[in-house]
Design goal:
- The chain is of the alpha/beta class.
- The chain has two domains: about 80 residues, Orthogonal Bundle (Helicase, Ruva Protein, domain 3), CATH 1.10.8.10; about 190 residues, Vaccinia Virus protein VP39 (Rossmann fold, 3-Layer(aba) Sandwich), CATH 3.40.50.150.
- Helix content is about 35%, strand content about 15%.
- The strands form two sheets. A seven-stranded mixed β-sheet has the order 5-4-3-6-7-9-8, sandwiched between helices. Strands 1-2 form a two-stranded antiparallel sheet.
- The protein is elongated and about 70 Å long.
């Protein structure tokens, strides 16, 4: 690589793209975003001035970030941000990185409360606060509560809420345990649903608490389905849960065994099974 005193932006981008080609589907883009982060500039500014020389401190930081990315660490943890539902969210290794497919959960929650005045919504296992904050941004009149059992995750969520000036109540709780008798019009959750044996590769960098759903990936749903009904408005309450693409049939059976009725099943934009919409029903 060029010496730090002559480390031009275009040299940094070329070297970064070469190094990341083996670990990333978008090595050049990754390099651009890492240079932007290291130099505290926008990506467009990085691309507009390829001849600009990185100073020694910025070059050192870029190389350190590049080495971490080359080891498989997710880009969002390096740039400390991920956009979700048009919200710029701070992320850290304490929280799950928000995924684009989870935006479907937000869209369905908003549709569920579209005709309700001042809807009361609960996000269970909020992580960075992505779902709760997206709902609150879209429905400013909504009363939104978000829980997580991780104090570190809640610190990230609260910081995001403060930076975005969104009023969400955050509660440290394992599922519903700290909510007392509170009830909600809609409960949404993107729980841990990865099978224990599959928490490998890039996933191993994310908090296991937010990913590991046990041997079959369904442990979290067993807890949710057993307790959620007592926290739903009995007249119109709805439970929305995200799930893995290959889990729908097992999850439907599990929901029905806990006296939930599948009101609808939704696929994400890639056509993969993603969300169940559940109401209280009768066990089969």
């Amino acid at each position: 690589m060029p010496t730090e005193s002559a480390y031009r932006t275009d040299d940094a981008l070329a070297a970064g793209a070469r190094l990341l080609a083996a670990v990333s589907e978008t090595p050049r883009l990754d390099a651009e975003l890492l240079v932007a982060f290291a130099t505290r500039r926008t990506r467009s500014a990085v691309l507009a001035f390829p001849e600009r020389v990185l100073d020694a401190a910025d070059a050192k930081l870029f190389r350190a970030l590049l080495a971490r990315r080359a080891r498989g660490e997710p880009l969002a943890y390096l740039t400390e941000e991920r956009e979700f539902f048009s919200l710029p969210l701070a992320v850290s290794s304490s929280v799950l990185i928000p995924r684009a497919e989870t935006e479907l959960l937000v869209e369905l929650a908003l549709a569920a409360v579209a005709s309700a005045a001042r809807p009361v919504v609960l996000d269970v296992g909020t992580g960075s606060g992505a779902i709760a904050l997206a709902i609150k941004r879209a429905r400013g009149d909504a009363v939104v509560t978000a829980t997580d059992q991780s104090a570190a995750a809640l610190a990230v969520a609260r910081a995001n809420a403060a930076r975005l000036t969104l009023d969400v109540r955050f509660v440290e709780s394992r599922w519903f345990e700290a909510l007392g008798g509170d009830t909600f019009d809609v409960i949404v959750s993107n729980p841990p649903y990865v099978r224990s044996a599959d928490v490998t590769g890039a996933l191993a960098f994310e908090p296991r608490l937010a990913l590991d759903g046990g041997a079959d990936g369904l442990d979290a749903y067993r807890d949710l389905f057993a307790a959620a009904a007592t926290h739903l408005d009995p007249r119109r309450g709805m439970l929305l849960v995200e799930h893995g693409a290959d889990q729908r049939s097992e999850l439907v059976a599990l929901a029905q065994a806990h006296a939930w009725r599948v009101a609808a099943a939704h696929d994400d934009l890639a056509g993969r099974p993603r969300v169940l919409e559940l109401e209280r029903g009768s066990a089969p």
